[in-house]
């Protein structure tokens, strides 16, 4: 069960955010703002947003509060506009034009609150020939060139879950955008629209690679470069028990230590000789296959060889370093990543579990002085 917000947790304490419920990058961005201390009110619609898990386990809704508003009801848009009038930031992830048709687009919100930062999260962006096209992470990152970089050269591109597009190229850029716009709004009194498109953010993530490509230091094909698995000392290797180790021994001193601990000191000259890379890869692979993952982890423990075990999601919280830092936390019986990054003066925390749709309507109506929300409590959903 959720509770009212706890003040004084995180650098965004005092910032009010309205999140129009959706799935994927919008909720994740709003979770990050909530983790940082913002009072995030998620506006759920009757029947829910369609994520196929029990809301009690949707940790992207932690640290938030929820109200239920039917935007197709006569008083629905006014309820959201009343919230927008008292908010600093609004986040929505509909296709372009949908929020406008529902009566809660930027023009309507800014008429009520000129200082509002209106954050828009989409895959294709607010304009362009594909703006109205449906899609998901994989289809958004494919045209940007980034998906084609990932995987072995003799296999189809590897699918990086939905981390690269939805969350790295989408959510994180939306958060950067709305916080930058909030800084501007507080300095000038003028809000604005932030158009965060997954295609834009994901393309931007590859800025360094584009520079290397222009300089001739990157080949425009998969598995042929220093950082894409083409290099045998920046790759993953299977161990005797069918698990994996990750190697990132790029610098000469790290590479030398890696070879020494692996037991193949005589391969020092292969570091810069690309013609020797296939042979080196085979030798490294054979060595890793001779012991288990845990045995190799012990060999490289405490060294600068830049080698680490590849852990599963369930194993990760028990890694000694991550456990010591508290990188993961348990809240309400759910093991989950702790808020990040960390702040010396305004620490963050998981204050509440996932907001249940509509559970906080009365509290939000009182705290934000939006009595119109109470009509939802009197109307059967």
Give the class from helix and strand content and strand pairing: alpha/beta
Average pLDDT works out at: 94
**Integer-rounded radius of gyration:** 24 Å
Low-confidence stretches: 1-7
The number of helical elements comes to 14
Number of beta strands: 11
Which overall shape is indicated by the principal axes computed on the Cα atoms?
elongated
Order of helices and strands: EHEEHEHHEHHEHHEEHHHEHEEHH
**Biggest sheet architecture:** 6 strands, parallel
Through-space gap between termini: 19 Å
How is the largest sheet built, in terms of strand order?
3-2-1-4-5-6
> How much beta, percentage-wise?
5-15%
In helices, the fraction of residues equals 25-40%
Overview of the molecule:
34% of the residues lie in helices and 14% in strands. With 381 residues, the chain is an alpha/beta fold. It has a six-stranded parallel beta sheet with strand order 3-2-1-4-5-6, sandwiched between helices. A three-stranded antiparallel beta sheet has the order 7-8-9, covered by helices on one side. It has a two-stranded antiparallel sheet with strand order 10-11. A hairpin with a 2-residue loop joins strand 10 (328-331) and strand 11. It is elongated.
